[in-house]
Amino acid sequence: MLRILATALVVSSAYRGPRGPAQRLRRRRAVEALEVAEAAAGETTEPWHVFWDLDNKRPKDLQVLDAAMALLPSFFPEHRLESVRLYASYATLRHADCRSLLQSLMGDGTQSFLEDFPKRFPQGALFPLQGARDPRGMLRETLLVAPARPQAADFWLVRDAAQLVAPRLQARAVGTVCIVSDDSDFRQVILDIHHSGWRCAVLCQPQSWTLRKRAERWFDWNHFIEAASLGSASEAELPPARWRIGRPKALPAVDLMAHQKAHKELRWSSDVNRQKYRHLRGDKGARGKT
């Protein structure tokens, strides 16, 4: 209702008449009222955030990524998409498919960036992004590039997700976290998200049952990326998507040993459970034959 009223004020202020200081003042106040109404509407809608594991799931180029970004709000149309966080390790950026994505972002500076990155950002870097479909920069989009160490990008994804859903003293709206990955190692962070009172969705392959059975919502990666590719192809005649990449911020030094240890323990327990399940199935089969 506030948004409708403010929009009406903006329209009514644009009547044809003397363009003096009084009219400019009315128009400015109408615009301010519209901004207040949009802020009030945003506070009443539930936020949701995307944590995208580019080491595991990545589009082939920037055009497909741009089309994929446009599809994300349709997952929860009644909620407010607040941020999209992309995570990749330095080693992943050197792969051919991710290199083309980086080339689309940085252009001629890609090669020098890749060569200078280990010395310039030994702990990794955070890049602010601005998508082609977000000219006002309303959506917080970031690309975190971790150093080429085992589980470095996963560590930052888990860390940032935990910080987002951590209980705060002040009142804060509880929302939804969507993880884009097939990596079963994220099953623990999904449980942590649930324990914090937030909801969790996953965008992954149909066979990623470990993640699917722990999340409240599941979205099919195959359908998603196919729709994004079709959307990108339909816009082939248009000018290429132009993203903006901001000045990188160096990441602080962190100790990855605890995360790597937890990762190994999680893998070990998973292997033990898998062996028990296979042994149990073998015993049942043997009894059935007798």
TrEMBL record:
PANTHER family: C2H2-TYPE DOMAIN-CONTAINING PROTEIN, OS04G0464600 PROTEIN. This is NYN domain-containing protein. It comes from Cladocopium goreaui.
